[in-house]
Design goal:
globular
């Protein structure tokens, strides 16, 4: 019964009022890469201010991204050169852009010509959201099958925690709707198992990127 409402909300104007202020974010993932081309593209797109992370390790919190999120105000539009400069995974991207929408902030990716301030852009991003959820469900389903097979071999207990399980857990941790307990339950393991196999779990929960959109210092 709620589907028509959800579709209408999806295509509704967001933000309701645009400030015409465009803020850019750029990132390089290795020390040898340069930001010049990304910054030129953001300047050409009319960005008033640009935040740039010059290095980004796997577990780096990207301080300039956090500062960028804190700087954004309702009605502004965040502009990035490409989607891979903003989110490290599809789920990461979906989580952050969803919270931008909650704050009334637009999002535009220049390379992909994706603009969530337009109905077409919001529709495309809705497809991304559905795809991210589908991938997550596949990972969880595959993990459950692996755990079931492991339990069958050793008296009801899995012998190993595989890479797919850890990847699924790490993908779900940034989502504020998921508690550590609920993630463990979904994956069929104990909370202690997650802590044992994800050494930086506490850090991920304290400084999860999507909540940086609130502008708090974690």
């Amino acid at each position: 019964m709620n589907a028509p409402l959800e579709r209408s909300e999806l295509l509704a104007a967001s933000p309701l009022v645009l400030t015409e202020i465009r803020i850019g974010y750029a990132r390089v993932s290795t020390g040898g890469q340069k930001l010049d081309r990304q910054i030129d593209a953001l300047n050409a797109a009319g960005c008033r201010r640009i935040f740039a992370d010059k290095k980004s390790g796997k577990n780096d919190l990207r301080p300039e991204l956090k500062a960028c999120h804190a700087f954004l105000a309702p009605g502004d539009t965040l502009v990035v050169p490409s989607l891979d400069r903003y989110g490290r995974s599809l789920q990461d991207l979906v989580n952050m852009v969803a919270e931008l929408r909650e704050r009334g902030i637009g999002f535009q990716s220049l390379h992909e010509a994706l603009d969530t301030t337009t109905p077409g852009g919001r529709l495309i991003f809705h497809v991304f959201t559905a795809l991210a959820e589908f991938i997550r469900e596949l990972i969880v389903a595959g993990t459950h099958e692996g755990l079931a097979a492991a339990r069958g071999k050793v008296g009801g207990r899995p012998t190993v925690v595989n890479e797919e399980l850890i990847r699924a857990a790490r993908d779900m941790l940034p989502n504020p709707a998921n508690s550590v307990t609920s993630i463990a339950k979904i994956l069929g393991v104990s909370v202690g198992t997650l802590y044992n196999h994800i050494p930086d779990l506490q850090e991920l929960r304290r400084s999860r990127v999507p909540r940086q959109l609130e502008g708090t210092q974690g």
